[in-house]
Automatic annotation (TrEMBL):
Family to which the UniProt record says this protein belongs: Belongs to the short-chain dehydrogenases/reductases (SDR) family.
One annotated GO molecular function: carbonyl reductase (NADPH) activity
Organism superkingdom: Eukaryota
Gene3D superfamilies: NAD(P)-binding Rossmann-like Domain
Name of the featured protein: Uncharacterized protein
A Pfam family: adh_short_C2
């Protein structure tokens, strides 16, 4: 894709952006003209992602951030503002799902880990990012939830519930963020072919799933999500906030 200039002069942070959906979003926003800050837990992966995108002529930098650590979250926002002069766009993509199985078998430690990362850390990153985005006159925040937040899943139970909570968080944040001239929207991907979801799209039933439950007849790819984020943070979406967009090839969803 040719580089665009719609986001020229804008600064964006994308969490968990060294692979999969996060990497595709970071790449697309950089192609749209933004300076994008890549972040993830491991320095080696951050450096590799930055190098790959810089080799394509894109304007990116990297900061190591474990979103579960308050000091890392603070550093991510503060260092970005210090080095890039401010923040306009924040994309919250980091999430964990350490287990699969019947929801009533979820242990307290697993439940805590999922909600500490997927909801608590996500909220406090948004809180700190919003403060800086307001200083720039406003901007956009995107959460990456899941279609599981709409339809639930017996074997991804706690993860799905955390994603439902993110959908609710979007709605709850709209009034205050709107007063700060900040729009917030959430994408809710279906099965996207990434390492994070390998257990689904590489399963023995994957082909049947594609043919019988997805009207478009295929699993998604990370670029499908990146395009939606590109739209949401652009001026074309200037009157859209508080929305939760399902990106799932036509799979039915309702909350």
């Amino acid at each position: 894709m040719a580089t665009k200039t719609g986001l020229k002069g804008k600064v964006a942070i994308v969490t968990a952006s060294t692979a999969g959906i996060g990497f595709a979003i970071a790449k697309r926003l950089a192609q749209d003209g933004a300076h994008v800050v890549i972040s993830s837990r491991k320095k080696q992966k951050v450096d590799a992602a930055v190098q790959e995108l810089k080799a394509e002529g894109l304007n990116v930098s990297g900061i190591v951030c474990h979103v579960g650590k308050a000091e890392d979250r603070k550093k991510l926002i503060e260092q970005t503002v210090k080095e890039q002069g401010g923040l306009d766009i924040f994309v919250s993509n980091a999430a964990v799902n350490p287990t699969m199985g019947p929801i009533l078998e979820t242990t307290e430690s697993v439940w805590d880990k999922i909600f500490d990362t997927n909801l608590k850390a996500n909220f406090f990153l948004i809180k700190d990012a919003a403060e800086q985005i307001e200083k720039r006159g406003g901007g956009s925040i995107i959460q990456v939830s899941s279609i599981g937040g709409f339809i639930g899943d017996e074997f991804l139970g706690a993860y799905a519930v955390s994603k439902t909570a993110m959908i609710g968080l979007t709605k709850a944040l709209v009034p205050q963020l709107a007063s700060m001239n900040i729009r917030i929207n959430t994408i809710c991907p279906g099965v996207i072919k990434t390492r994070f979801s390998e257990a689904l799209w590489k399963s023995p039933m994957a082909e049947e799933m594609e043919k019988t439950t997805i009207p478009m007849g295929r699993f998604g790819v990370s670029e499908d999500c990146a395009g939606a984020v590109s739209f949401f943070v652009s001026d074309d979406a200037s009157y859209i906030t508080g929305e939760n967009m399902v990106i799932a090839g036509g799979v039915k969803s309702r909350l």
